[in-house]
Amino acid sequence: MAEGENERLEAFARAALPAYGISPTARLTLLNVSENATFRLDDDSGPSIVRVHREGYHSQEAIESELAWIAALRDSGIVRTPPFLPTQQGERVSVAVLPDGAARHVVRFGWVDGVEPTQDRLLEDFAQLGSIAARLHHHAKGWSAPPGFTRFTWDEETGLGANGHWGSWRDGMGMTPGILAVLDRCAAQVRERLLRFGKGRDRFGLIHADMRLANLLVAGPNVTVIDFDDCGFSWYLYDLGSAVSFFEHEPYVPELCDAWVRGYRTEAELSVEDEAEIPTFVMFRRLLLVAWIGSHSTTDLAQSMGVQYTQDTIPMAEAYLAHDFRA
User: What pLDDT score was predicted for residue 2?
Assistant: First the structure.
């Protein structure tokens, strides 16, 4: 990300601070730039998080909807997740405006201590991811969303279509005619199997949609789920596809998926038929991330993945095309 872009994102964050009764000169530290820019804010009340939303991605109604689900999850005690902090006027979402008239939505969250799970106990961590996902799914199935609730749908069209939320996988980095030919056949099979799998209430609903270890904070016995920015309507198994984001091609992924399933089944049922379709959701997520890297090529994460991520997708796609779903 260019230095000038980071400075502009910080300017939006500072422009939002007075709405919270905080000086615009307070200390801000950039933590991450992905869909949004996330800053740590330090002031007299202690640390908190300021999230500056990407322009034109989520509407204010969609952001309000995300916060409504977070509030419901916190009220029910289903999972630990940071509270959002309203402005002095009680607004959940503020609007930061720069002198040139540019505006961004901003949300402030409470600070939660913790670190991302380490890589020395992946099987245990993935079992925990599965159990957390099951609790979220159970809550979503029984929750009555408030009027006006709106979130993205992550399905075969919005994920694999030419106008997907993250663009088209065809615009991924390092595409060649040969790669396009393989991935086109793969995407067609993924689409066919998703349509066959269907969107019944037992398989499709409100999910986190980015449920990976990077979005857990661990502090002793406490595990906090963060970053609901992609939450929306999709297949429940898409949360498993998301769990292996960016390393779906690694040979140990099937073992991690098995651990996730074991954890899930400690909290909810998962049929054998659903379990058999897991490779489709891993491949589906992979294609979405090929698109994401292509459309977010200036971010540090996309640059770290680069062309190699697209190239590593080819043997994965070929294995998926050869997979025997009857086995």
Answer: 55
Task: Verify that 228 and 248 share a domain, yes or no.
Answer: yes
**3-state class of 225 per DSSP?**
strand
Give backbone dihedrals phi and psi of 71, rounded to 5 degrees, phi first: -60, -40
**CATH number, domain containing residue 171:** 3.90.1200.10
Round to whole Å and give the CA distance between 52 and 14. 10
Q: Which residues of the chain have pLDDT under 50?
A: 1
CA–CA separation, 99 and 95 (whole Å) = 13
Number of residues assigned to the chain: 327
| The predicted structure's pLDDT at residue 3 | 62
**pLDDT computed for residue 327 by the predictor:** 59
Contact 37, 51 (CB under 8 A): yes
> What tokens were used for 215?
């979005």
183 in the same domain as 97:
no
CATH number, domain of 23, equals 3.30.200.20
